[in-house]
């Protein structure tokens, strides 16, 4: 796809700068660009400043959209935050035969490096970072990218063009994948970690959510590889779409697979065409699982993808001895005396929070949770809270999801001896914990910030929430 002298309408510059790299790339490649965003110039001040001199070459329509813009351009390019379905403006573009793409479509069609993509409800960030960790022995300077405005796809593209050997390792959200089937090319290796209820405020049903994920492998060829979670209930749904790629599975259960990686009681075993090869010993497997069962799955998916990318099991095993942590994912941000504070702000769903509760929950664990609802169910989350966290140690941050959390906890009799405690401000929660628990304890205490919900009612996103949490912890528990 050539963009020179093409009229491109970019829908959504983004207050966090997500669209800046896309717009700058389009300008650099000779496109005539119009940016339209429902936010005002004042709200987009930082992003407009980041455009620098390129801003003078762009037409802006801010604070509103105009239908005529959507039917008078050659291509409409949408920011991932823009909802595709039930969008009257995009519907007008479709009726007029105007292609609707995003930066991922451009990336997949332009990149010449090997591409490894990871999606899923949980574990995609850790899996992406661990793939980069395993690959770093061969490819110096490699890192995971994709689902972040800090390292946008079209900012990454010029760097990859300078080194045609180094693989691109991309974490991709369902929002990015909604129209990824518009790309002519597909990832060389695609990983789907799992699928659970999430983002149902964006996708109208689980099937629609799953269909977005399918686009990660829909256009793959027989020479490419697809890695799926054999233990996840949605894998059969994916398989019924008849993927063309060579399929590998990963599992922690007693599944019969012909190709893939299985965690067994005596270690981790790779199976190729039915032949078995032990990769990790029982003790090495247990060390990985000590990071949480969810991280055992993350190890299996990342190790399998790395091996499919041509790295030997010997090298993967060597790198597995020191798996790196990922920022804001069960991250220890403070240890003082017997108090440990863990920032798990990226747990934006019940399943994400359950993983952290299972790993860190014990009699003296303090849990901070709550936030914005995404039309999710909190019944199972409530059962885990009841099992691992005493009522006096549960602190809730007010939000639409928090109301559902309290409702589910009351249904199972959780608040018999202590009332629910819901706070409007995160700082008030931390100061209350500091006042009641101090910093000196004979018994180890874990303060676990694992919201189990999105953050839009009080923060820009989960990363903004995590950053503010870290600042408050260092100030209050100094």
Number of helices: 18
Q: What is the helical fraction, as a range of percent?
A: 25-40%
Give, in spatial order, the strands making up the sheet with the most strands: 7-8-6-9-10-11-12-13-14
Q: What's the overall geometry?
A: globular
DSSP strand content: 15-25%
Terminal Cα span: 55 Å
Kindly state the mean pLDDT as a whole number? 94
Instruction: Kindly name the structural category.
Output: alpha/beta
Mind describing the biggest β-sheet? Answer: 9 strands, mixed
List the uncertain runs.
none
CATH superfamily of the largest domain: Mur-like, catalytic domain
Give the CATH architecture of the largest domain: 3-Layer(aba) Sandwich
User: Care to count the β-strands?
Assistant: 20
CATH overall fold name of the largest domain: UDP-N-acetylmuramoyl-L-alanine:D-glutamate ligase
Q: What's the structural domain tally?
A: 3
For the record, the CATH class of the largest domain is Alpha Beta
**Rg (C-alpha, Å):** 23 Å
List the helices and strands and how they pair.
Layout: E1 7-11, H1 20-28, E2 32-37, H2 45-50, E3 59-62, H3 67-70, E4 75-78, H4 88-95, E5 100-101, H5 103-110, E6 115-119, H6 124-135, E7 144-145, H7 153-161, E8 168-171, H8 174-177, E9 189-192, H9 206-214, E10 225-229, H10 235-239, E11 246-251, E12 260-264, E13 267-272, E14 275-281, H11 282-289, H12 293-308, H13 313-319, E15 331-336, E16 339-343, H14 350-360, E17 365-369, H15 379-388, E18 394-397, H16 400-411, E19 422-423, H17 426-437, E20 445-449, H18 462-476
Parallel strand pairs: 1-2, 1-4, 2-3, 4-5, 6-8, 6-9, 7-8, 9-10, 10-11, 11-12, 16-20, 17-18, 17-20, 18-19
Antiparallel strand pairs: 12-13, 13-14, 15-16
Helix pairs in contact: 6-12, 14-15, 15-16, 17-18
């Amino acid at each position: 796809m050539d963009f020179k002298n093409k009229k491109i309408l970019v829908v959504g510059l983004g207050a966090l700068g997500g669209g800046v790299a896309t717009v700058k790339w389009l300008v650099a490649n000779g496109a005539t660009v119009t940016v339209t965003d429902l936010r005002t110039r004042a709200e987009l001040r930082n992003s407009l400043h980041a455009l620098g001199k390129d801003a003078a070459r762009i037409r802006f329509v801010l604070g509103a959209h105009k239908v005529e813009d959507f039917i008078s351009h050659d291509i409409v390019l949408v920011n991932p935050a823009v909802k595709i379905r039930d969008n009257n403006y995009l519907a007008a573009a479709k009726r007029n035969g105007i292609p609707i793409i995003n930066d991922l479509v451009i990336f997949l069609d332009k990149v010449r490096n090997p591409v490894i993509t990871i999606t899923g409800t949980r574990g995609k960030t850790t899996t992406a970072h661990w793939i980069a960790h395993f690959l770093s022995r061969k490819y110096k300077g490699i890192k995971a990218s994709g689902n972040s405005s800090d390292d946008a796809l079209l900012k990454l593209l010029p760097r990859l063009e300078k080194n045609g050997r180094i693989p691109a390792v991309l974490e991709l959200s369902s929002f990015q994948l909604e129209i990824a089937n518009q790309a002519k090319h597909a990832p060389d290796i695609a990983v789907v970690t799992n699928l659970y209820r999430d983002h149902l405020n964006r996708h109208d049903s689980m099937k629609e959510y799953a269909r977005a994920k399918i686009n990660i492998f829909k256009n793959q060829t027989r020479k490419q590889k697809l890695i799926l979670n054999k233990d996840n209930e949605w894998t059969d749904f994916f398989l019924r779409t008849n993927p063309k790629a060579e399929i590998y599975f990963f599992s922690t259960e007693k599944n019969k697979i012909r190709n893939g990686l299985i965690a067994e009681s005596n270690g981790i075993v790779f199976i190729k065409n039915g032949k078995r090869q032990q990769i990790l010993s029982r003790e090495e497997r247990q060390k990985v699982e000590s990071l949480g069962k969810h991280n055992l799955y993350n190890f299996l998916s990342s190790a399998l993808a790395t091996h499919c990318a041509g790295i030997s099991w010997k090298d993967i095993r060597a790198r597995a001895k020191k798996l790196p942590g990922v920022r804001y994912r069960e991250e220890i941000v403070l240890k003082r005396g017997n108090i440990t504070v863990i920032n798990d702000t990226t747990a934006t769903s019940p399943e994400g929070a359950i993983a952290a509760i299972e790993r860190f929950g014990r009699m003296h664990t303090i849990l901070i949770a709550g936030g914005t609802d995404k039309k999710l169910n909190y019944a199972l989350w409530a059962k885990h809270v009841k099992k691992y966290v005493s009522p006096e140690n549960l602190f809730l941050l007010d939000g639409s999801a928090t109301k559902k959390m309290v409702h589910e906890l009351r249904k199972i009799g959780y608040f018999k001896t202590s009332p629910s405690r819901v706070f409007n401000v995160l700082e008030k929660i931390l100061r209350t914990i500091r006042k009641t628990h101090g910093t000196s304890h004979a018994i180890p205490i874990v303060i676990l910030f694992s919201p189990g919900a999105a953050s839009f009612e009080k923060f820009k996103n989960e990363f903004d929430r995590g950053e503010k949490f870290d600042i408050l912890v260092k100030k209050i528990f100094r």
